[in-house]
Amino acid sequence: MLVSVESLGAEFLGSYGDRRGLTPRLDALARASLWFSNVYATGNRTVRGLEALSLALPPTPGQSIVRRPKNQALYSLGSVFEDKGYAVLFAYGGYGYFDNMNAFFDANDYRVIDRTHIARKEIEFENIWGVADEHLFDKVLAEIDREKAAEPARPFFAHVMTTSNHRPYTYPAGRIDIPSGTGRDGAVKYTDYAVGRLIERARTHAWFDDTVFVITADHGANARGTSSIPVSQYRIPVFVYAPKHVAPQRVDRLMSQIDIAPTLLGLLDFRYYSKFIGRDVLHAPAHGDRAFVANFQTLGYLRGDQMVVLRPKRSVERYVRADGQFVLASGSAPDFAREAIAFYQVASHLFHSGLYGDEEQIPPEQRVRR
Question: What span, in angstroms and rounded, lies between the C-alpha atoms of 327 and 1?
């Protein structure tokens, strides 16, 4: 089960140094998980996070692939699981026609559940964005039970996208000690409550011991901007929790959001044909570590203590890390800039040329074996 939490930037979590006490359950989960502590979201919109998590591709300039035409039958995390015989689910607490989510996931090997599939009697609270996260999680647990009870029973992969940590920051009363609708702090704390409740309820199900939970975010909460890339606001948590199978450990290597899917598949010891540009970080050399951070027109590429920023009209800037921040550097690094351009250009070429299709549609002689 992959849970992408709305706007859960790392800066809100006590495990990353925050002292407001908003995330006690997530902080406990960090200590019990394989915790990837240095991961960066590829963008500042939900559709960018969904693109990175499902396709493991760097972002392309302009609009997310989730919202583009001709985005069906792509090579995706869902297609890998589907080819392995898994029941594949995408669940969203709101109406999935927003941002083209339903159409995208339905066309890429996922069965879609959204607000329209949740009965009125199962909803105590909802707002303009969707049902409270706890109701979405309950629906997903019920759907998993239904799959496990089917004949023949199948393993499952569920990608769950939450909504509660979003304006107007409202949630059911009586869950936490911050009143609903009073601001982001309350929404973060409710998110923490809901994720903790999900884990505890899942623990009562027969399939829990053999299930891997991945808790992450679609993007950070404060990464907005026109052209600048506030790198620290792109940092997101990634916790891999499977107490019977995955030992707690903190991994501090630089990672991109596009690395989550191949790293998960590596943990599952899958053998599969891959077109992912993302890397299985646990089985890849550290000297190749890098991350991608972008907004609508600006593309950033991080490696070590450097970042190159690409903008329209062939603008290229180089930044270096100083006192924890990236500052504009004098002088150019043409090889570094060409590397950044190559990653982004290849991602764009693969999609626009129709080369990022599902494995079953690729001739055997063109497949890459992992």
Answer: 38
Q: What is the CATH number of the domain that holds 313?
A: 3.30.1120
- d(CA 197, CA 193) in angstroms, rounded, equals 6
The DSSP bridge pattern shows strands 306-311 and 315-322 to be antiparallel
Residues 119 and 267 in one domain: yes
Total tally of structural domains belonging to the chain: 2
Pair 24, 14: CB distance under 8 Å:
yes
**Residue with token string 């991350």:** 291
Q: How far is CA 5 from CA 23, 50, 187, 228, 319, in A?
A: 13, 11, 11, 24, 30
- On whether both 123 and 270 belong to a single domain, the answer is yes
Instruction: Give the model's confidence band at 365: pLDDT under 50 very low, under 70 low, under 90 confident, else very high.
Output: low
**Residue 70 structure tokens:** 């001709």
Which pLDDT does position 62 carry in this prediction?
A: 84
Helices 133-149, 184-202: crossing angle, 10 deg rounding: 20
Give the Cα separation of 3 and 5 in Å (integer). Answer: 6
Given a contact cutoff of 8 angstroms between Cβ atoms, the answer to whether 33 and 200 are in contact is no
pLDDT value at position 370?
46
Question: What are the start-end ranges of the E strands in the chain?
Answer: 2-5, 34-40, 87-92, 111-113, 126-127, 130-131, 156-161, 213-217, 235-241, 249-251, 255-256, 291-294, 299-303, 306-311, 315-322, 325-328
- 341 sits in which H/E element: helix 334-352
Residue 324 belongs to what domain range? 292-366
pLDDT at 360: 60
The verdict on 237 and 320 lying in the same domain is no
pLDDT in tens, 26-56: 999 999 999 999 999 999 999 999 999 999 9
Q: For residue 128, give the CATH number of its domain.
A: 3.40.720.10
Q: Are residues 263 and 134 in the same domain?
A: yes
